[in-house]
């Protein structure tokens, strides 16, 4: 292939397909962000060749036809790979054309350096990774003010921390079950609002024009993480519209702030840390707790850590009727396993 853009696309469809088959999904952190950058670089080269609609995911069947026999896992996951790439393409194509127009205008004339604030605007608002903007600039003999880019990013992060302090401090009082993120597969969804906060207080509803925090059961919005800002968008409910200006992660789980109410015991102090035996004995202790209503003690517990205010059932067994128990003593080749049991 003589055309450099075709070479980039061919190389990147291989790389991204194998990454997805290995469980690496495009996001804003770590290997996931590398994956996102590769995909968006390929899309930009397709756009350069005249592709104005999603095309990249359609190359997966051709890749499988060439390499599927040698890599059965690639063929087995072809549909999933196409879905992941399609969603990522659809996200980027929503802003690609406008972003390219901004970049073209910024590089018009005798420009030698792309200002850092423009590079950051492209990154923050239009989803252009810095290296993608740098690629375009390099093709035109222009450099990027990376110091200005990082300064603009740090300024926004500082502003975000100040603006988001209310949301994070107050919304952390939510102690329900964590939600399910589906943003890698879907851009929209129908879901349930499980909690609403106004001025840090749990409320049943918001008035027109009132700011607040929503906690959703399922969400396509990516929460701020790893220096990347959270997604924005909208939530429609009946005849109401809630404009989402930011998405934040909150510490929400099954136990919330009630961990000190759970009874925790360890049988390892009775029999040592023998991998196979440990799991069997602890599982038996859990079954007996369900059957007999007696919690096994943690023996030899003499100096509790004041920073760890947990009920470890110290030294003496305790009568307690429980409906659910959990054992985490199993290990297999360095992998830990957890077993939960419920009385029926």
UniProtKB/TrEMBL annotation:
It comes from mine drainage metagenome. Residues 1-257 form the Alanyl-transfer RNA synthetases family profile domain. Gene3D superfamilies: 3.40.47.10. It is an enzyme of class 6 (ligase). Keywords: Aminoacyl-tRNA synthetase, ATP-binding, Ligase, Nucleotide-binding, Protein biosynthesis, RNA-binding, tRNA-binding. Its EC number is 6.1.1.7. This is Alanine--tRNA ligase. Pfam families: tRNA-synt_2c (PF01411).
């Amino acid at each position: 292939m003589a055309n450099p853009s075709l070479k980039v696309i061919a190389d990147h469809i291989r790389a991204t397909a194998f990454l997805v088959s290995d469980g690496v999904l495009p996001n804003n952190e770590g290997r996931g962000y590398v994956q996102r950058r590769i995909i968006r670089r390929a899309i930009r080269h397709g756009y350069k060749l005249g592709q104005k609609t999603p095309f990249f995911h359609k190359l997966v069947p051709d890749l499988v036809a060439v390499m599927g026999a040698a890599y059965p896992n690639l063929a087995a996951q072809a549909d999933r790979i196409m879905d992941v790439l399609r969603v990522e393409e659809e996200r980027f194509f929503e802003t690609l054309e406008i972003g390219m127009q901004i970049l073209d205008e910024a590089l018009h004339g005798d420009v030698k350096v792309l200002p850092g604030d423009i590079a950051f605007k492209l990154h923050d608002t239009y989803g252009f990774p810095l290296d993608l903007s740098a690629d375009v600039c390099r093709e035109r003999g222009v450099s990027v003010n990376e110091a200005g880019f990082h300064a603009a990013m740090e300024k926004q992060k500082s502003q975000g921390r100040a603006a988001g302090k209310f949301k994070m401090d107050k919304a952390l009082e939510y102690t329900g079950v964590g939600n399910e993120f589906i943003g890698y597969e879907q851009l929209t969804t129908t879901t349930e609002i499980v909690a609403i906060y106004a001025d840090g207080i749990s409320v049943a509803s918001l008035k027109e024009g009132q700011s607040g925090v929503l906690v959703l059961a399922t969400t396509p919005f990516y929460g701020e993480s790893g220096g990347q800002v959270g997604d924005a968008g909208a939530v429609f409910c009946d005849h109401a519209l809630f404009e989402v200006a930011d998405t934040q992660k909150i510490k929400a789980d099954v136990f919330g702030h009630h961990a000190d109410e759970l009874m925790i015991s360890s049988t390892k102090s009775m029999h040592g840390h023998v991998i196979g035996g440990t799991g069997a004995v602890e599982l038996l202790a859990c079954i007996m707790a369900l059957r007999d209503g007696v919690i096994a003690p943690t023996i030899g517990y003499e100096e509790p850590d004041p920073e760890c205010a947990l009920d470890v059932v110290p030294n003496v067994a305790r009568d307690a009727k429980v409906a659910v128990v959990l054992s985490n003593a199993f290990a297999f080749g360095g992998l830990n396993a957890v077993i939960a049991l419920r009385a029926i």
